[in-house]
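Forum > Structural Biology > Help requests

Title: Can anyone predict the 3D structure of DNA polymerase-3 subunit epsilon?

Hi all, first post here. I have the sequence for DNA polymerase-3 subunit epsilon but no way to get a structure on my laptop. I'd be grateful if someone could post the structure tokens.
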Amino acid sequence: MTRELSFAALDVETANPKRGSICAIGVTVVQDGVRVASRSWLCRPPAPVSDFAPLQVRIHGITPNAVAGEPSFAQRWPEVLSVIDGLPVVAHNADFDISAVTQACGHSGIPLPSWDYGCTKVWSQRTLGLPDHKLKTVANRLGVRVDHHHHAGDDARVAAEIAVGLATLTSAENLPDLARACGTRLGRMSPSGVRGCR
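Reply #1:
Sure, ran it for you. Structure tokens for DNA polymerase-3 subunit epsilon below:
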């Protein structure tokens, strides 16, 4: 049923409330409806927004010392792009992750990637009658295991499995089908800007 469903699920964690302050990135790749790869990386946030705030550290546990020896976001980003490899992107609350990437790229002086993207939070709001649509709530409804919430690698895996679960639920063959089945359209990110996915 999901044989053409191929995408990369993305999750980022930030050092402070400024969305461009990315300090961790997770990616899970799904090919033909099957999870085939999961990666996560730490990175130093872009210099203009590199301070770590106590609230964010409490949420994800990443400290300045944890990233001190890591590549900067700009240095890490090509490796992330090579794993995504041109696939469309999915995120849970994509507004946050896409704007974080947009701002981090801007702070780092690097062009935005070219991606179609969708949001599992928006899709769940359109298809599941839940009291809220937080990652854990949606995951529990679809029988997806959550091991380490706010760990970028695990949250990317959970978002990927939610997308596959929603595709199965709606009989969607691919990501554009899933977006349509949920009454939405895929968003678009490119060097010329971002168009939302609602």
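The beta strands are 7-14, 22-31, 34-42, 89-91, 115-119, 187-190, 193-195. The two ends are 24 Å apart (CA to CA).
Shout if anything looks off.
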